[in-house]
Each structure stands twice: as C-alpha cells, then as structure tokens.
Amino acid sequence: MWQLSMSLSATAVYCHLYTAIVVAVALWSVAESAGSGSGVCTRSELAAKTRLHSVYKTRLQYYTAYGRDCGYYYSRWDSCSRQRTESYTENEPESYTVWETKKFCCPGYTESDSSSADVQDCRPVCHLDCLQGNCSAPDHCECWSGYSKQEGTENICEPVCSQSCI
C-alpha cells in the first residue's frame, strides 16, 4: 500500500514538474518581431485545445435465449437469461496543446480603430501631436508635402517658402 501511494505521489510530482516546464517554455518563447514596419509583432503561445476521438469499448449485454440456446436439456419453449460481450466505439473529449502565433501591436504602436479580430492593424504613437504632419513611426513626425521640421523641434512642421515668410 505504501509503495502504491509513493508511486502515485511521484507521478503527481512528475506531472506538476512537466506542467511547470511547459509553462516556462511558453513564457520563454515569447518573441517579438516587427513585421516590415507595420507595427504588428507576433509571439508564440501554448494553447490548450479539446477534440473528440473514438475509443473502442466493450460491455456485457443481457438477452433472453430460448430452447437449445439455453442448454442441451432445455425444450424449445423454455427460456433463460444469457449474456454476451458487445463492442462499440464512443467519442470522448481529449485535451491537447498546440503552439499558436498571436499578433499584437509592438511597443510604440497602438491598435487602430479599424482592426478586425483576424488581422491586426497597428499605428505608431507620437506623444507630442504632429503639427502639419503625420506620425510615421513611434515618436517620429513626418511633415506634409511643402512643410519641413521647425529647427529644434521634432513635432512642429512649418511651411517651406521660396521667399521670406511672414
């Protein structure tokens, strides 16, 4: 009895150890990679899933037999209860894990309003408003056509004049 309980607790320890290793690998494998300046990064996550699988089973089936099926000395009007083994398949849920690639906005980017659940669209964040320009990368303003950055600033664009501007 002691050996059985020792075996069961050792199995539980190995199971918890395996779970801890799987979780550690999942956390360690989070990899961020900016995809061609889109601001969308990806990471691999371990996801738990469930599926149905067929299991072959047997069961005893009781039935009423008549006459000689009951035995040599039974008449054909006699009946008896008999049993036979019946086999069948049954669908049972099965848990498994898979690695899935999840998309998310990279640091310095935020999800745009038009993002759908499937494809994530991320836009850069500029902490200072871009005046006469657009936020083209995190904290980087790009001036509109006909404008250039005002000297000493990163977010203010002023008109480019061929003559002296007032």
Automatic annotation (TrEMBL):
Key word Membrane present: yes
Organism domain of life: Eukaryota
Transmembrane segments: 12-31
Keyword annotations of the record: Membrane, Transmembrane, Transmembrane helix
Keyword Transmembrane applies: yes
Protein name from the UniProt record: EMI domain-containing protein
Taxonomic source organism: Graphocephala atropunctata
